[in-house]
C-alpha cells in the first residue's frame, strides 16, 4: 500500500512538467479569417493582406492577436523563450519618401488608446513615451530620422523598450551568407521583407533579423541585445503590430506571421502570401527639358555600352566549372548563356513559382525548342557544394515515368541552376487545395496520381542501384504533365540543408504536417519517414484538403488524427467531401483512406513498405487489419 503513492509520483511529476511547458504556435500565410483585433485605420482586405495604414496622412492602425499569450511559466514564473517571423511591405505614395514606419509590439493591452501617429508609431504619446510602467517591447522599422528620439537614420531597425528611444538600432541590412557582409535594404522599397524576432530567455538574448522575402534566413542577426525581459513582461501579453503615417502618404502592410513559444517559429510560405495591391504607374513628365535629358543620357549609355560590351558579356555569362566536374558531369552541363536566353534573362514573366530552395523559371531551349523548368538556387560556394552537386546530378541518371527528369545543371558564383523537364499542369497542391474550384480532379484521376507517386517511391526505395530517400514528399512536389500524369520532383534537394551553408540551421528536413513523429525525435530520415509523408499526401488527395487546417488557430485540425477518429467511429466515409464525380467508387475510396492511415501510422513498425503499398493499391494484397490498441491515440 505504501508503495502506491511512490509509484504515482514520477507520473505526477511528468504531468506537471507537461502542463508547464507552453508550446503555443501558429502560422498565418495571409490573414483570411484570422482572429486579429483591429483598430484605427487597420483592415484586412479580401486577399488576406493586413493593411495597417492606407496611404492617408497622419493615421495609425493596430492589429493584435485576439488572445493574450502566456509568456511566463505557470509553474515557476520563469520567462519563456519565443520566436516569431513576419512578412511586411512599406509602400510610400512617393517612392523616395516614406513615413513613419511600423512596429511589432508586445503589450499588456490590445487597445492602445491615446497614442499618437507619426513619430510615435501609434505606440505611445508625448506624455507616456519612455515610462517604465508601459511594459511594452517593440521592434520598430522606422523610415524617418527623428533626432529628438535619437534616431540614427531614416531607414533603421530598432529595439524599443517602453519608449521610442531605441535601446539598440542599426541601418536596415542583412547578413548575406555568401559574401560574409551586411547588405543594405531600403525599407520603403515596397519589396516584401521578412523580420525574425527571437528571444532566448536562458541566454537573455533578443535577436532581430531582417531580409528580403526571397533569400534564406541570414545566419547572423542584425541586432543581438542581451537583456532580461522578465521585468518588462507580464505573465500574459498581447502581441501584434502598430503603424502610423505622417505628412507623407504611406501604406504599411503585413503579409504573413508565424510564432512559436519555446521553439523556432515555422517558416512562412512565400507562395501563399497575399499579393500587394498593384502599384499605380506615375504619369510621365513629357516636358522638353525632360526629353532632352533622356536623349542625352541615352546617347551616353549607348557610347559606354559599345566600349564595354565585350567585357560585360564575359562577366555576365561567367560560370564556375571545377576540374572534378569536367570528367564526370560534362554531359549534364548547361551554359549559363543558354539558360539566360531560354528564360529571357530570368524574366519575372517566366517565373513559375518561388519555393523553399529558390525561384523556378519557365524556359525554352533555343535550338531544340524543348520546354524546361529552371530552378535557381543561391548557395555558399564553400564546402559541401561538390558533394551536393554530385548527389543531385547523379539523380539525373534516375529515370522513371513518375519522376520529374533532371536534364542538367549549371553553376555560377553563389548560384546553382537545375534544369528539369517542364510540367504543363503545375503542382498537385494547386488542384487539391484549390479554393476557386477551377481545377478539379475526378476520382479516377486522383487514384491514378496516387498510384503514380507510389510507383515513383517504390523505384527510389527499392528498384534503383541504391536506396534513395526523397525526404520531402508533399503535394507541392508532385507535378502533373499534360495528361495529368503524376511525377515526383525535388528529390534530394533537402540535402542542401545537410551539407548546409549554415551549420547552425539544424533544421528537420521535410514540411510541417508531413513529418513522421520519429523524425521529430531522432532527426533521422528513412524510407519509413517517406512512407509516412506519402500516407498524409494520400489522405489529402482523397479529402481534397490540407493535412493541417488552420482556419482558426485554436481550432486547428490535424487531418490524420481526425480521420483516425472517424475510422473508429465508423464514419470514415463521410470524410470524402471532394467534388462528387460520377465515377466515385466507395470501396476504392475506403481502401485508399485506410491505406493512408496505415502509412501515416505513428509507429514506423506498423507502416507498410512501398512494395506492399503498391500491392494493396493493385488489389494483390489484402489490407492488413490494425487493431485499435496499436493505433493508440
Ligand atoms: C483609408 O482609411 C480611411 C479610414 O478608414 C478612409 O477614410 C480612407 O478613405 C482610406 N483611404 C484610402 C486611400 O483607401
Ligand atoms: C497618454 O496616454 C496615457 C495612457 O493611455 C493617458 O493617460 C494620457 O492622458 C495620454 N497623454 C496625452 C498627452 O494624450
Ligand atoms: C549602407 O547604409 C549605411 C547607413 O545608411 C551607409 O553608411 C553605408 O555606406 C551603406 N553601404 C552601402 C554599401 O551602400
Ligand atoms: C542570437 O544571435 C547570436 C549570434 O549573434 C547567436 O549566438 C544566438 O544563439 C542567437 N540567439 C537567438 C535566441 O536566436
Ligand atoms: C531575469 O530576472 C528575473 C527577475 O527579475 C530572475 O528571476 C531571472 O533569473 C533572470 N533571468 C536570468 C536568466 O538571469
Overall shape: globular
Number of domains: 3
Largest sheet: 8 strands, antiparallel
Determine the structural class based on helices, strands and strand pairing: alpha+beta
Strand content: 15-25%
Low-confidence stretches: 1-20, 280-286, 498-506, 628-633
As for the CATH topology of the largest domain, it is Jelly Rolls
Please work out how many helical segments DSSP would assign.
13
- The CATH level-2 architecture of the largest domain is identified as Sandwich
**Overall number of strands:** 27
Task: Name the CATH class of the largest domain.
Answer: Mainly Beta
Listed once per kind, the bound small molecules are: 2-acetamido-2-deoxy-beta-D-glucopyranose
Helix content: 10-25%
Averaged pLDDT: 81
| Estimated radius of gyration | 27 Å
Q: In angstroms, what separates the terminal alpha carbons? A: 31 Å
